[in-house]
C-alpha cells in the first residue's frame, strides 16, 4: 500500500515537472496573453485591454520600427511595460517632448532601441530613461484579444511623424 502511494506520488511529480517545463518553454519562446495597464499607449491600447504577445521576434532580432513591444522596465525590473519602438540602433530620434519649442535629436546606440508610448503627454518612456537595451525586450504584441469589438491587429502609431528617416 505504501509502495503504491509512493509510486503514484512520484509519477504525479514527474508529470508535473514535465508539463511545467513544456509550459515554461511555450511562454518563454512562443508567447502568451498579456493584460495591459496604464494610459501610456492610448488610443491604440486602452487600460485593461488583453493582447497576445509573441516572443520569437526578439530571439531572431526581427523587431522593427513601429512594433509594440513588452519590455522589462528599466526603472523597475519586477514590472513590464508596453511601448512602441520608435528607433533601432543607429537611428536618429527626437529626444524632446512634443511641447518643447527647441527639438533635440540623438542617435540610438548599438544594442538598444528607443521606445515611446502612443500617448506622448502621459507616458514615461525613452524620453525619460533613455535608450533601452535590446535584451530587455520580452515580446512583440501581435494583436488585441479583448475587448472583442476591437479584436484584431493593432493600428498604426498616431505619432508617425516622430519616426525620423535621416
Automatic annotation (TrEMBL):
Source organism per UniProt: Indicator maculatus (spotted honeyguide)
Similarity comment: family membership: Belongs to the peptidase S26 family. IMP1 subfamily.
E.C. designation(s): 3.4.21.-
The protein's enzyme class: hydrolase
GO molecular function, one term: serine-type endopeptidase activity
Alphabetic keyword roster: Hydrolase, Membrane, Mitochondrion, Mitochondrion inner membrane, Protease
One of the GO BP terms on file: protein processing involved in protein targeting to mitochondrion
Principal location listed in the UniProt entry: mitochondrion
Recorded superkingdom: Eukaryota
Lineage: Eukaryota, Metazoa, Chordata, Craniata, Vertebrata
Subunit (UniProt): Heterodimer of 2 subunits, IMMPL1 and IMMPL2.
PANTHER family: MITOCHONDRIAL INNER MEMBRANE PROTEASE SUBUNIT 1, PROTEASE FAMILY S26 MITOCHONDRIAL INNER MEMBRANE PROTEASE-RELATED
Active-site residue numbers: 40, 83
UniProt-listed InterPro entries: LexA/Signal_pep-like_sf, Mito_IMP1_subunit, Pept_S26A_signal_pept_1, Peptidase_S26
Residue ranges constituting the Peptidase S26 domain according to the UniProt record: 16-97, 103-146
Cellular location(s): Mitochondrion inner membrane
Gene Ontology annotations for the cellular component aspect, listed alphabetically: mitochondrial inner membrane peptidase complex
Name this polypeptide is given: Mitochondrial inner membrane protease subunit
Amino acid at each position: 500500500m505504501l509502495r503504491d502511494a509512493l509510486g503514484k506520488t512520484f509519477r504525479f511529480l514527474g508529470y508535473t515537472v514535465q508539463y511545467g517545463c513544456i509550459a515554461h518553454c511555450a511562454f518563454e519562446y512562443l508567447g502568451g496573453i498579456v493584460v495591459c495597464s496604464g494610459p501610456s499607449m492610448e488610443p491604440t491600447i486602452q487600460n485593461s485591454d488583453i493582447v497576445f504577445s509573441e516572443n520569437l521576434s526578439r530571439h531572431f532580432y526581427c523587431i522593427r520600427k513601429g512594433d509594440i513591444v513588452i519590455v522589462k522596465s528599466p526603472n523597475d525590473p519586477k514590472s513590464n511595460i508596453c511601448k512602441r519602438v520608435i528607433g533601432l540602433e543607429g537611428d536618429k530620434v527626437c529626444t524632446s517632448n512634443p511641447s518643447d519649442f527647441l527639438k533635440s535629436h540623438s542617435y540610438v546606440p548599438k544594442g538598444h532601441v528607443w521606445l515611446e508610448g502612443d500617448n506622448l503627454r502621459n507616458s514615461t518612456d525613452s524620453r525619460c530613461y533613455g535608450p533601452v537595451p535590446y535584451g530587455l525586450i520580452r515580446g512583440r504584441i501581435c494583436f488585441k484579444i479583448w475587448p472583442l469589438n476591437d479584436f484584431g491587429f493593432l493600428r498604426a502609431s498616431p505619432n508617425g511623424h516622430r519616426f525620423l528617416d535621416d
